[in-house]
Automatic annotation (TrEMBL):
Family statement drawn from the similarity comment of this UniProt entry: Belongs to the ribonuclease III family.
GO terms assigned for molecular function: double-stranded RNA binding; identical protein binding; metal ion binding; ribonuclease III activity; rRNA binding
Uppermost EC category: hydrolase
Subcellular location field: Cytoplasm
Residue ranges constituting the DRBM domain according to the UniProt record: 162-231
Name of this chain's protein: Ribonuclease 3
Cofactor(s) this protein requires: Mg(2+)
Reaction catalysis annotation: Endonucleolytic cleavage to 5'-phosphomonoester
PANTHER family linked to this entry: RIBONUCLEASE 3 (PTHR11207:SF0), RIBONUCLEASE III (PTHR11207)
Positions of the catalytic residues: D52, E124
Natural source organism: Streptobacillus felis
GO annotations of cellular component type: cytoplasm
Ranges of residues in domain RNase III: 6-135
Length: 233
């Protein structure tokens, strides 16, 4: 990445890194590290881990202060819609992060720059990097600005609806049991897996989902199950 690219990206997120190596690490996918096999290159997985926790705290604090009359259950449902791979991926697209990520040739050719799982992860890694480079108040301010428009338009973002909770409510009411999600198939290398998940109720399969993450595959399966159960009513 050229210096010009660093400046351009930092302008988009409205933050200037003191330690540019953190930004570089946040943008480095594990496939790139595996391809180049250099001890001097770090992938973004540790920063992603940190960023996930930072995002959880920022989001929880934000919706808690903005929804003073909401119950714990309502707040949990709201948070589950925001803390999602798809919402994070849409923010990455707004920032054009896909064009900045360091990927292996294979991952690049296979469309990794547009894949929700990759884009969601790199956003979390970027948040983790900003947190380490600055402090919590600074990170919170940046994140809230990026999240604000998403929070106001959650219903317009594909797959953010909490299909799993909705399905559980339906099955408990109709069958007095909770749905069971089973990973029936995994394809691809560790850094680029595809998961096939089935959701069953009383040993009968009602839905199937295929996606780049287990969570997304489960949501797709739950949505399909809800549609099937509604037709049977």
């Amino acid at each position: 990445m050229k210096k010009m690219d660093f400046e351009e990206l930092m302008s988009k997120i409205n933050y200037t890194f003191k330690n540019k190596k953190l930004l570089l690490e946040a943008l480095t996918h594990s496939s790139y590290v595996n391809e180049h096999n250099s001890p001097n290159i770090k992938d973004n997985e540790r920063l992603e881990f940190l960023g996930d926790s930072v995002m959880d705290l920022i989001t929880t604090e934000y919706i808690f202060t903005k929804n003073l009359n909401s119950t714990e259950g309502e707040l949990s449902k709201f948070k589950s819609k925001i803390i999602s791979e798809t919402v994070f991926a849409t923010i990455s697209r707004d920032l054009d992060l896909g064009n900045y990520i360091f990927l292996s040739n294979g991952e690049n050719i296979s469309g990794g720059r547009e894949r929700n799982s990759v884009l969601g992860d790199v956003f979390e890694a970027l948040v983790g990097a900003i947190y380490l480079d600055s402090d919590y108040p600074t990170t919170r301010e940046i994140v809230i600005k990026l999240l604000d428009s998403k929070i106001k338009n959650l219903d317009q973002i594909e797959w953010v609806s909490d299909y799993k909770s909705a399905l559980q409510e339906i099955t408990q009411l109709k069958f007095k049991v909770t749905p069971i999600y089973t990973v029936v198939k995994e394809d691809g290398p560790d850094h680029d897996k595809t998961f096939e998940v089935e959701v069953s109720v009383e040993d009968k399969v009602f839905g199937k989902g295929v996606a780049k993450s287990k969570k997304m595959a489960e949501k797709i399966a739950a949505k399909q199950a809800i549609e099937k159960l509604n037709k049977e009513q």
